[in-house]
Amino acid sequence: MIFGRLFLFLLTGLRLLSILGPLTFFCYLLSDLMSLMCLRFYLTLCSILAFLCSK
């Protein structure tokens, strides 16, 4: 009886993991992409400012 309940718990846990796993990975990728975009924007801004100041 206890084993059955444990098996059900493990199955539910695995199902949750299979749903949440790719989602968290996607969110992580998205945040990584966003930080890269921000960094690129910041660098572009800095180079534009440097270019304007050098004139």
UniProtKB/TrEMBL annotation:
Keywords on record = Membrane, Transmembrane, Transmembrane helix
- TM annotation in the entry: 34-53
* Superkingdom, taxonomy of origin: Eukaryota
Annotated protein name in UniProt:
Uncharacterized protein
Organism, scientific name: Suillus luteus UH-Slu-Lm8-n1
